[in-house]
């Protein structure tokens, strides 16, 4: 894991050369809060992540909210890359909590496409499916957030350990927000509940460019469980 020193950097809006774009665009699922947080660094991190996605031709799938960090990352990337680069997936029950318009109407030009689903399980399954079908460098990233963000992050870590996917799982650690979680992983290794190899399933990034780099260079742990999930 990288150093826990906090660092939030604003990335350049300059796009990568077309020759470097893979045939399939990477798709990154971002988990984050529907609140802005008390420090402006959290909103700045969401904005810088969207700028890095635009620069590297990465598509976003996220929880479909228009408030807080969710709204910032979606709005910024839509403005830079266009509505086709953003797909929000939100349960109908959360429309009034995570969106400014509870009637379900979608401002595609501001936030990209939105799909309204019936359940949290459907939301997570569809987001994971888009990541798995994305090009090299696809994965899952957690910006700062609350219980829901942590639950989604931990499920993707668990799915990776179980062999349900082999995509990178990262925390964008803003102002030490995830220091406690990273320490818990080390504690779990020392206590014998997580293997040393599987500790590396979760990767820390301290700025937006490092997020992109770590996703591109992500290597699957050799300690993952060798389970067969194919239909018999």
**Number of helices in the DSSP assignment:** 8
Tell me the helix content: 25-40%
Radius of gyration: 17 Å
Structural class by sheet pairing and helices: alpha/beta
Q: Trace the largest sheet across and list its strands.
A: 4-3-2-1-5-6-7
Mean pLDDT comes to: 89
- What is the percentage of strand-forming residues? 5-15%
What order do the SSEs take from the amino end to the carboxyl end, as H and E?
A: EHEHEHHEHEHEHEH
Overall geometry: globular
Describe the biggest sheet? 7 strands, parallel
Give unreliable regions as ranges: 1-13, 16-20
**End-to-end separation:** 38 Å
- The total count of strands amounts to 7
Structural commentary:
It is built from eight helices and seven strands, in the order E-H-E-H-E-H-H-E-H-E-H-E-H-E-H. The N and C termini lie far apart (38 Å). The protein is globular, with a radius of gyration of 17 Å. Helix 1 (40-55) packs parallel to helix 2 (68-81) and helix 1 packs across helix 8 (208-216). Helices cover 38% and strands 14% of the residues. A seven-stranded parallel beta sheet has the order 4-3-2-1-5-6-7, sandwiched between helices. By secondary structure, it is α/β, with parallel strands linked by helices.
């Amino acid at each position: 894991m990288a150093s826990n020193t906090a660092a939030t950097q604003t990335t350049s809006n300059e796009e990568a050369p077309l020759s470097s774009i893979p045939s399939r665009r990477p798709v990154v699922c971002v988990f984050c809060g529907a609140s802005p947080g008390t420090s402006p660094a959290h909103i700045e991190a969401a904005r810088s992540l969207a700028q890095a996605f635009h620069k590297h031709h990465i598509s976003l799938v996220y929880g479909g909210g228009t408030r807080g960090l969710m709204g910032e990352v979606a709005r910024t990337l839509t403005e830079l890359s266009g509505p086709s680069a953003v797909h929000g997936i939100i349960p109908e029950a959360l429309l009034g909590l995570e969106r400014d318009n509870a009637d379900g109407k979608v401002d595609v030009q501001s936030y990209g496409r939105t799909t309204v689903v019936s359940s949290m399980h459907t939301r997570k399954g569809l987001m994971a499916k888009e990541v798995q079908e994305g090009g090299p460098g696809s994965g899952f990233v957690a910006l700062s957030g609350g219980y829901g963000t942590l639950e989604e992050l931990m499920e993707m870590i668990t799915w990776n350990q179980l062999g349900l996917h082999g995509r990178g799982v990262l925390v964008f650690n803003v102002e030490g927000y995830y220091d406690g979680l990273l320490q818990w992983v080390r504690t779990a290794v020392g206590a014998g509940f997580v293997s040393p190899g599987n500790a590396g399933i979760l990767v820390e990034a301290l700025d937006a460019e490092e997020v992109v780099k770590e996703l591109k260079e992500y290597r699957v742990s050799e300690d993952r469980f060798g389970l067969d999930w194919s239909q018999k």
